[in-house]
Task: structure prediction
Amino acid sequence: MNSLNIIARAFFDICRLRIGPQDLPSSKILLGLTLIIYTTISLMLSIIQISLAKALLSAIIDTSLLIILIGSLLYIASRAARFTQTITALAGINIIFGIPTIPLVFMIGQKGLSNNQADLLVLLLFVVVIWNFIVYAHILRNSLEIPMFASFALTILISILTFSVLN
Result:
């Protein structure tokens, strides 16, 4: 249990921009666990809006795109050795941001919300998404050793590519 607390704390410290992916252990087991949980969170988010079969396919494609796009970037930047820690960090922070996103997306889709309630939920979701982008860019900056502006631009590009493929 102590190891789990240390890993969870590391993911939260990454979300607070205090540490980078290089501070995570380079563990295939941790990578596998975070990818499984990440795929499950992605499935839960998708199933709110689409059928189970489509949501499952969407979650698998989402996880595959994460691995392929980030793996390709690391390879191009001659940083392939950082693959395990980078993917673990990205999956881990997406788990952390995905957990509050699930109820927000669910509630936004509910009928009968007042305009003020809907506006507040959308604002909260916007804050979560923006902070997720910042942390994602922080991880890419550390992994690729590039300026924050470039890593933020890559984050937006990856998000657009992923969104385009999934929709």
